[in-house]
Design brief:
alpha/beta, eight-stranded mixed β-sheet, 6 helices
């Protein structure tokens, strides 16, 4: 019995000694050779990830060449989490000398147009993300109104409005081009296929959108164009043709 137990013990001791000698002769094995940033397989935000990679790459490179105990995984994760574009990050230590970070960026749902004429992605939780160059920006509905920059609650309302739109029909999400906010009118939306505006106020988006859909269907059947549809009222929709007296 002792012989059976002794063999694995001896193998373990020999292996430990061998590993110790190898490390002593090759101390570079204990240093971080590379830290890589990869996009999560569940994310399609390749453009935002490219910007993340460009911004975070130099910070992570500075940690290469240090011993492993000088680079705690949580410290590396904190560097990545500090970027507002990052939703989640997972850190993996890959033997013998590599660290890999798998990042899920926030998904941009809308785009806020700032007073500096730059577009800022708006995540699903209303987080305002750093701007992207115009040539790299995805095709998203645009938010306008200075209050939307400073008040996250209003951005959440804008997202609620957006998500209240149906997937099909004249007033569908895919046809939305702009959501504009002002203290005077609340929210109003612009559609890509019509030249007018639709005023929706700040509450009860679902019932209002349902009434507007019926109005749009009727106006289309009558070939009425260039109008303002005001649905801010509780039970009615007012239609004003722009060229009417």
């Amino acid at each position: 019995m002792w012989r059976i137990v002794r063999i694995p013990i001896m193998l373990f001791i020999v292996g430990t000694i061998t590993a110790g000698v190898s490390i002593a002769l090759n101390p570079q094995w204990l240093k971080v050779e590379s830290i890589t940033l990869t996009l999560s397989a569940n994310s399609d935000e390749a453009i935002i990830f490219q910007r993340l990679h460009s911004a975070l790459g130099p910070k992570l490179t500075k940690m290469q060449g240090r011993y492993f105990w000088e680079v705690p995984l949580e410290q590396v994760a904190q560097i990545v989490r500090a970027d507002k574009r990052v939703k989640t990050v997972s850190v993996y230590r890959e033997f013998p000398s590599r660290i890999r970070l798998e990042v899920t960026p926030y998904t941009a749902v809308l785009a806020y147009l700032g007073s500096d004429n730059r577009f800022y992605p708006v995540a699903r939780d209303a987080t305002l993300l750093p701007p992207l160059p115009l040539g790299e920006f995805p095709d998203l509905p645009v938010l306008r109104g200075k209050e939307l920059r400073d008040e996250p609650e209003l951005r959440l309302l804008a997202l609620t409005l957006f998500e209240s739109l149906p997937q099909e029909g004249d007033l569908r999400r895919a046809s939305l081009s702009e959501i504009v906010y002002s203290k005077k009118d609340g929210f109003k939306v612009f559609l890509s296929q019509m030249s007018g505006e639709i005023k929706l106020g700040e509450t009860d988006f679902g019932p209002k959108i349902s009434r507007v859909k019926k109005v749009l269907s009727y106006l289309e059947s009558q070939d009425v164009k260039s109008r303002v549809i005001d649905a801010r009222f509780q039970k009615k929709v007012v239609v004003r043709v722009r060229n009417s007296p």
